[in-house]
TrEMBL record:
UniProt keyword Transferase, yes or no: yes
InterPro entries reported for this sequence: Acyl_CoA_acyltransferase, GNAT_dom
UniProt xrefs under CDD domains: NAT_SF
Keywords on record: Transferase
Protein name: GCN5-related N-acetyltransferase
All residue ranges annotated as the N-acetyltransferase domain in the record: 1-168
Pfam families (UniProt xref): Acetyltransf_1
Amino acid sequence: MEYRALSTEEMDLELFKEFKRHQVVTKCWRKIDGNWVVKDNPFEENWGEEEYRILIKCLKHTLETGGIVFGAFKEGILKGISSVESEFFGSNQEYLDLSSIHVSEEMRGMGIGKQLFQMASTWAREKGAKKLYISAHSSIESQAFYKAMGCVEALEYNKEHVEKEPCDCQLEYIV
């Protein structure tokens, strides 16, 4: 695998032509009356061109505003991506946002996500962050990944993230 920072010029549909953002979800974490519980919530995510167009627009914005986008490539083909925004937030201005992390379906479980997460964390620390903030998919599989990385429930919730994705789990990671 080759891991590297990506440029704005690389952000197009061609980059994602062999990327498979697909996930069958059966159970999700939900916070009910202050307690985390696993609930049945079956659905399937299968990104098409429109979802990739939205992601590309977001990633370009990340780069244009001083953030970073990392890619993982196998034989020149994108298999994983992570991004960190450049704007600090929180009451102590200590958080940077891990705005995306995705691994193509056929490559999950091979350590790619872990490497991309560590690269994002290192970049955030070098920029002066104390913590990464993650508004994370609530599926049990996604949450297992973040727990394995050492993430915990965020001490401060980012209101914008909660309003945009009320079912996401709001996490943090000390960098």
